[in-house]
Amino acid sequence: MTLEGKSALVTGSTSGIGLGIARALAGAGASVMLNGFGDASDIERLRAHLAEEMEVAVAYDGANVARPNEVARLVEKTQNVLGSLDILVNNAGIQFVAPIEEFPDEKWEDIIGINLSSVFYAMKAAIPAMKAKGWGRIINIASAHGLVASTNKIAYVAAKHGVVGATKVAALELANAGVTVNAICPGWVLTPLVERQLQDRAEQSGTELSVEKDKLLAEKQPMAKFTSPEAIGAMAFFLCSDEAETISGAALSIDGGWTAQ
Ligand code: NAD
């Protein structure tokens, strides 16, 4: 199976899971619009390397996905530069950890904006052309925290539950438009987002990073193993296949048994 002739936008793809998904889609022949923050020369190196390695067109735009006008511009740029936007992966996300009574309002607003509102803005901008074409794939990266809660993550858990809800609404509205909409709900993936949490925990408890890694997994996942960004990329790739055309409105776990408990 190939994605040749298809174009994908993956938000937050300068790092971690988004990069894993961008690599999987590009590896299958899709042209890709990268998005996210980081050092400009590092990002340019990443873009050029991916284009050369996979022999596909790869572009980049640094839109802030929390801003509706920037997201609309990003979708339009993808359509103009790559010729279409067939696969939309809403992946950009951030985390902040504190009990509710100490949770700063600005952090709540940032997380709701980046992790949830962005999904609405991007779907709103991308859906008309997908409907007109009669083919599209929308993949929203939620989390195990889109299905169950943990302490100290009020904004993240609320946003990710919202992503699962928004996914279901879009799936219903697009059920007979040739466009599927699904959420992927990963457990622990060892990316900079989780590495920052591990570092904070190690500093607070005075333990080694490796000890915190084992503890983090043991607290939530029956399987003592991180999921790789490549595995999430493979799952996203399958959702883009013709065989996945009736999978829509699903919240698909890839979490080492976290939410089976
Ligand atoms: P990461 O920190 O490695 O990557 C986040 C990406 O989002 C980066 O490219 C960053 O530049 C980008 N980004 C941040 N704010 C942005 C903004 N305002 N506009 C555009 N881009 C922005 O994190 P990750 O772990 O790869 O997370 C990716 C997604 O996966 C997030 O939605 C996260 O909630 C979700 N997730 C992660 C895990 C995990 O264990 N790592 C588990 C479940 C879900």
Per DSSP, what share of the residues sits in E-state strands of 2 or more residues? 5-15%
Query: What's the arrangement of strands in the largest beta sheet?
Result: 3-2-1-4-5-6-7
Low-confidence residue ranges: none
Domains (count): 2
Shape: globular
- Taking all residues together, what is the mean pLDDT? 97
Bound compounds, please? nicotinamide-adenine-dinucleotide
CATH second-level architecture of the largest domain: 3-Layer(aba) Sandwich
CATH domain class name of the largest domain = Alpha Beta
Instruction: Give the structural class.
Output: alpha/beta
Global Rg:
18 Å
Helicity, as a percent range: 40-55%
Q: Report the biggest beta sheet as strand number plus sense, adding barrel if it closes.
A: 7 strands, parallel
* SSE ordering: EHEHEHEHEHEHHHE
Q: How many β-strand runs?
A: 7
CATH topology of the largest domain: Rossmann fold
CATH superfamily of the largest domain: NAD(P)-binding Rossmann-like Domain
